[in-house]
Design goal:
By secondary structure, the protein is of the alpha/beta class. It has 2 domains: 143 residues, NAD(P)-binding Rossmann-like Domain (Rossmann fold); 188 residues, 2-Layer Sandwich (Dihydrodipicolinate Reductase, domain 2). 32% of the residues lie in helices and 33% in strands. It has 9 helices and 16 strands. The strands form 2 sheets. It has a 10-stranded mixed beta sheet with strand order 14-13-12-11-7-10-9-8-15-16. Helix 6 packs across helix 7. Nicotinamide-adenine-dinucleotide (NAD) binds next to loops.
Length: 344
């Protein structure tokens, strides 16, 4: 039985506590929360758990083999580092860290200690993303041409990270999972409408080899909540609307064929608009599947779907996006474990 401690009982930590507490193959022992009113609520709701405010208690308890970190992004690195150094397997909330240097350090620390480091990119465990992955892998939609996502709402302004680190982390993880590819370059633009200078609207573009392009529109200042992604293949196109309660995925038998006419300067385009297929989607709670993946990989070995490698790449892209914003939308190359800035 894997014994687990969770640190952070805020907005997202509550969901993790509920899910880990319900799993059969692990025992949630501790919740560590430094806010007394939240820890009181947790203790009332879960009398079976030890609720503490000192992280050291979890680190020093040898019976605890896994720590789950659900605290703000700027604390992910120090808390994960301490946990790995104490010999604990670590599941950390997305994004893994707030810099590539920190992410790579945690990655090699976990490797050197033969411990599992995993990042909670929850969307990878949703029925919708699992189904899209199947459609992409089996080439049901042909060869991928583009991913175009809008993730906007009147959202919670974060104090430590901008809107890309908060929202695009989801889109990037889905994009890396679906394509299985690392982009060649990244460019981004963003603006802040608050005195702290943290961007609350940003647009991010990833360019891949073979003319594959991905674009993410992220905002905390939209009057409406939109969670929509288009995945375009050269045979079919998928519309993924995460706000839809049941019909989240629609597969359009839509495409085009471009031919050069005899007059070589003119191009002829044949359009095809066919049926729309609405597949049934598994409705399991993604967070529960994510938690199960973490525990199963600790018990049986193997690589989780939301791996540390994917988590590090997400941070690489986010850091490159920040560089691009800071350099007036310059294109930032992602290459051989290094990114370098190219001015446009
Ligand atoms: N996977 C997802 O879909 C998803 C969704 C929302 C948030 N998140 C992530 O979850 C993390 C937390 O976000 P949130 O919105 O829940 O934040 P939050 O501020 O609501 O909660 C964080 C909690 O951690 C506690 N805390 C911080 N440092 C601590 C320490 N050293 N010891 C004990 N308690 C400590 C704080 O008191 C707070 O209650 C972030 O990394 C965020 O990106 C992920």
């Amino acid at each position: 039985m894997v014994k687990v401690g969770i640190v952070g009982y805020g907005y997202w930590g509550k969901n993790l506590v509920r899910n880990f507490n319900a799993l059969d193959n692990c025992e949630l022992v501790y919740v560590c929360e430094k806010n007394p009113s939240l820890s009181e609520k947790c203790a009332k709701l879960y009398p079976n758990l030890k609720v503490v405010s000192d992280y050291e208690v979890l680190l020093n308890d040898d019976s605890i083999s896994a720590i789950v970190i659900a605290t703000p992004v700027d604390s992910h690195y120090p808390l994960s580092k301490l946990a790995l150094e104490a010999g604990k397997n670590v599941l950390v909330e997305k994004p893994l860290t707030s810099s590539v240097e920190e992410a790579e350090h945690l990655y090699s620390l976990a490797k050197s200690k033969d411990l599992l480091l995993m990042v909670d990119h929850t969307f990878l465990y949703t029925g919708a993303v699992q189904l899209m992955k199947k459609k992409v892998d089996t080439k049901t939609i042909g060869n991928l041409q583009y991913i175009d996502s809008t993730r906007i709402n009147l959202g919670l302004f974060q104090h430590d990270v901008n809107v890309l680190w908060d929202l695009a982390a989801h889109d990037i993880s889905i994009c890396l999972h679906l394509t299985g590819k690392v982009p060649v370059s990244v460019d981004a633009i963003g603006v802040s409408h608050t005195p702290n200078g943290i961007e609350n609207i940003a647009f991010l573009t990833l360019k891949f080899e073979d003319n594959l392009i991905a674009h993410f529109n992220c905002s905390w200042v939209s009057p409406v909540k939109i969670r929509q992604m288009l995945i375009g293949g050269d045979e079919k196109m998928i519309l993924y609307n995460d706000n839809e309660p049941t019909e989240k995925i629609k597969i359009y038998d839509t495409g085009f064929e471009a031919k050069t006419s005899e007059d070589r300067r003119r191009m002829l385009v044949d359009y095809r608009t066919g049926d729309i297929n609405v597949p049934k989607i598994q409705n399991n709670e993604a967070l529960s599947l994510m938690a199960l993946d973490f525990i199963n990989c600790i018990q049986n070995g193997g690589t989780p779907v939301s791996s540390a490698e994917l988590g590090v790449t997400v941070v690489k892209i986010l850091e490159a996006a920040q560089k691009s914003i800071n350099n007036n939308e310059s294109e930032v190359l992602i290459q051989n474990n290094e990114s370098e800035v190219l001015m446009k």
